[in-house]
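Give me the fold.
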Amino acid sequence: MAIPLAYQTNLPAAPEWLNNGDNGWQLAAATLVGLQSMPGLVVLYGSIIKKKWAVNSAFMALDAFAATLIIWELVGFRMAFGERLLPFWGKAGPAFGQDYLLHRAKLAATTHFFRNGTMENEMIEPFYSMASLVYFEFMFAAITLIFLAGSVLGRVNIKAWMAFVPLWLLFSHTVGAFTLWGGGFLYHWGVIDYSGGYVIHLSSGVAGFTAAYWIVALCQARGLVDVSA
């Protein structure tokens, strides 16, 4: 009995390496994270702060999400998951266009060699497209910055935040992501971060604490905050 066309393995629109289950879960998981960010944390941040800061706080989360999308596509993704430039950074480059996004996902810097130069582990190539990987990692990059925003609600002007977002994304998040996930030196040392404990939660928490500390310190130095009260 002939196999119906829809169930044949070698279809023009379904390459052999594409696994529907892996790809579907990758997209579903990323979308759930995105809903947590937009509108989840936008609504939360706008509702837990004083009324005069509500719009500013909500737009901080919105800006973090939107700005991350643009920067991630232009240079951010490949700095975090592209070819190796430095032990802690990948080569910057755009991550859009059919020639790039429709091919099988790969983490080019994850090939691991023994000290004598022979290969120990081949490059990681998941069973879904590069488009799915870019989308998935974008959602986590965006929510990392939105978590950070929660530490400085009511303390930061939206204009200052708009300048801060691209700088922190490019010079902090991409470093952590490449080092631990993309094939950086900690990856090759065997450090494992399955659920983003280091790259997302710890980095945003430490950055948020540090930002809040210095904002209060600067305000105190200018006499804008009375810590004795």
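The chain has a mean pLDDT of 87.
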